[in-house]
Structures are given as C-alpha cells and as structure tokens.
Amino acid sequence: MKQDFKTFQGQGEAIVNHRFNNVRAWIPVLLACAVIAQPGFAAGQDNSAQSGAWTPNRLADGQPDVQGFWRPENQGTYSLINPRNGQDGKPDKDGKIPKRKVKPSRIIDPADGQVPYLAAARAKQQHVQANFNNPVSQDLVDPQARCFPGGVSRQQWWHNTEIRQYPNYLIIIGDADRRIIPLDGRPHIPGNIKLWMSDSRGHWEGNTLVVDVTNSNAKHRLSNEGDFSSDKVHIQERFSFIDANTYQYQATYTDPSVYTRPWTVSSKQVRANTDEPDFEAWEYACIEGEKNTDNYITEKIVSQ
Amino acid sequence: MRIINPNKHKHKFERSSRCCAFKQLSGIAICAVSIILLGCGTQPVKTEDNVASVGMPRTSDGKPDLSGIWQTLSTADWDLEPHQARKDAPPGLGVVVGHVIPYQPWALAQKLKNFENRATLDPRRKYFMQGIPRANYTPEPFQIFQSDKQLTFIYEFGQTVRTIHANGTKHPEGHIDWWIGDSRGHWEGDTLVVDVTHFNDQTWFDRSGNFHSDALHVIERYKPIGPDHIQYEAVIEDPKVFTKPWTISLVFYRHKEKDFQLLENYGFTFDYEKFYP
Predict the structure, then answer these.
(1) Based on CB atoms within 10 Å of each CB, which residue in A62, A75, A105, B59 is the most buried?
(2) A148 and B266: CB-CB below 8 Å?
(3) How many domains, chain A?
C-alpha cells in the first residue's frame, strides 16, 4: 500500500494535497512533476475504439468486469489540442524556453483537432487562455485550482480513476469528485437542476459502456486553456473496453450555443497500479487544505 | 485492532441458517432454489439476527445487502445529546446511550466554548469532510454500494467518498491524520462491524461543538432491523477527551421514492459560482 499522494506522483499539473496548505507551495512540485516521464507517455494516441473481440469476466448482473484503477495513457489537462501535463518550461541559460513535447490533439472529430467554437465563444476561450498564468480577476482562476469538481470528461485525463461496479451501477471515483452512473434505464433528473458532475445514465453495448450526460452546471473548464461548454451541453460518452488492460474513452460534446457542430474528445486509458495488486486509494483532501484561493489572483481585486 | 479474519468464521453454516429463515419468513421462491443449492434444508432457524433482519435483501453469499440510499430522521447532527428546541436547532431526545457524553473536565469546558461559538466554528460550515460518525447522520442522504470485498459509502453532503474494506485487510500503520479515518469491516452474523481509526482532530461530532482528538477510535455496528431500516451504533473512544467510551444509537431509513438519487452539495463552491456563469 502506498500513501495517497504517492499515487499521483508526477501525474498532472494540479496535484493537491492537504498538507500543501499554502497554494503557492505546490507550484514547484507541479513543475517538477511535469518533467517526470510517464510510462507509455511517448506512445501516440490510439484513437481506435474497437471493442468486442475481448471476452471479459462478467459480474453477477451481467456487466463486463472492468473494476480497478485506470490512468490516462497521455495524462494532463493542460490542453485539449496539445495535450501535455505541464506548461512549457522556464527559460534556460540561453533564454530558450523548452517546449513540452507535442502530442496529437485529444480531439478526434473534427479532423483538424480543434474545438469548433462559435466566434464569440472562441473569443471567450482565448481571453481565459491568455490570462491563465496571470489571472487578474476571480473569473480567470481555473475552478479546478480551487479544488472544485472537474466535470465528467476532464476527470478522464487528469489523474487516475477507480471504477467500481455494483448491481445496476458503475461508479467512477476520482480525486476530488465521484460519479454515480445508474444502469437501470431511469430517466434523467429535472432539467433545471444543474450539477458540477452532471447527471449520468449508462448502459452496456457489448464491451462498451455508453453514458448519456446532461444537467451540467458547466462551471468547470475542459482544460487550462479556457475550453468550456454551456449548461445546455449534452455529452455522449463511450468507454470502449478493448482488452483487460485498455479502454478508449470518447466524449461527444453537443452544444449549439457554443459550438458550430458536435465534436469528440478521446483518451486512451490503461490499468494503473499494476505492480501492486493490493493497492488502495487513500483519502484525498483538497478543499480542506486550501486556506485562501484568492491568493491565485495576481492583482488585488477591489470589486468585480 | 479488532479486525477479524473472516476465514476464521464458520460462514457457511451461518449463511445456510440465515437462508432458511429468509425462506420461511419471506416465502420468496428464489430462496427455495438456494436451499437446494446450499443443501441447507435441515439447518435450524434460531438466531435473533435472523428474526431481526427479516426482509432485508441478501447478497449472493448470504450477507445482508445494505445497498441503497439511507438517511437519518434524528436531530443528531444538531446535537447528539438530548436538547430542547432552540433558534438554531430542532428538538431531539438525543442519540447518546445514557444521554450524557463523558467528557474530561477540561474537555467539557472546551465543548461549552465550542457551543458558544458554534455559529462560526463548526467545520460543517466550510463543507469539509465531516468525519465518522458525523457523515452518517448529516441530514442528507448517503448511498451504500456493497460487494464482498468492500462497501463504498457516497455522501451527498460535501465530497466524501468512504471505502469500508471488508476483505480481511488491516489498518495501515500510523498514526495518519485523515478526515474520515480508515475503515475496516467484517460481518458478525447479520451485523456489519467497522473499525475506524487514523483521524485528525479537525472535525466536530455535531453543530453543538461536541468534539474529539486525533486519538479518536470508532467502532460502528450496522444491523438490519427490517427491509428498510438499519440500526446504527457507534462506540466512541478517545482517552484524551473522554473519561470512558460512549455509544450513540440511531436508525437509518431507506429512501423509497421512485428514482430517488443522490444529488450534489459541494457547498464550498457557492461563494465562487457567480464568477463562473
């Protein structure tokens, strides 16, 4: 067994532990983590999503048994279009800024790998992106940096997740959030209820878990670069289990108030903690350790 | 350490006898099949547990199935001890066995101080993880998911996800400062017994300032008393704060509403949501 913080060592830009009471204290840690190579990190993103050839063990209620710890092969929520876990480095002695290795866009549709924003939405996204490192107002601080829930898809490439399955349910436990996915065909909750982690309804199609996601409050972002949806978004997810150790995650975002067309983001997931069969994810406290997230603001804000 | 290796128990016999009680009292046909499969037709029906938990669904391995969405109807979260109505609390008979929490003198003084300042000092106001047992009697629902290896408790209030490991593993070595501690459970008949340790000293037991130190040790007992009711007891030990162990006892009620589900109450986001329209 390992301690919780060890679980997430080197896994993303927003490692937070309750012992890091000063929000600035962990920035160097994050930068250090950014340079730790991940197993399989260099592998290109496999966007294929064939499932069906694999014959899984089945649980008593017929679900394929996919329980356990998973990690994104390509980890980090910094960017959708240039996924990496960390920003470009600090200038070296020659003044050159080391660039993070460029990865294929997480976006597999449209083909150009870009989020198809409407013009006004693109401007909003770019405004947030431009101010990410120097947020001068509360609205420019990434809600994830405040320990707020990251939303359904961002969870899939931030840190490790654990899947647990029970009759009529599949639950996904992340660090600062959790998802309960009922599989019993019940209707969504009333549309006026908006949730950080949305409302999920799932069913299995062979070895693929299909999840319909509504009721997002859309207050989270999809990346550090200001990517966003509105609270009218409809997300259709597919967890396509390819073999016992791999699944391809895809989420299609439909939101005509923000995008010109639906678009799809993808993330390959592999088994985590494979060297430790008895691994347990331990308590992850985030908000409990934060003293004042207003410290993120680089200029004192008198009023909004 | 109160963790008991389940392999040391004669679970097969217990399973069998419970199965028969289930058949006798519920008449559900599926149990008849189970009886044939388990060959338990000749085992006597005898224990009080069997009678008391009539109707509670059972897992395939014969344990009571606590899966479902539960909530207290008590006023424990306002005040564990008996109390009259007051401006910030509905009245309640209290859930402390014997009515009075046995504080050491210094700790009683601290409790009274906490009570005076409860409007500002209760950690609940910050939506932090509430600790055990308080998370269980917060007046919001929680959902139990049960397998033979572990039980997952997800609480609507805040962000607490709790795992009760029930696979015979022991507490990690410590001390470790955790908000909800480390939970290891085992079954004693039809009662789930959970040993919880490794707490910090940051949580309160209720809105009245009842508190503990990091030496807190909790032993919980979840016992079905009907298809939709769990009798819950928690023994509280903390030699730094109390003169002796004490016990709370209350009932969890199952949510029966059609399509009932947990929502979210990540309350620590409220003050900032206006910045993210």
Answers:
(1) A75
(2) yes
(3) 1
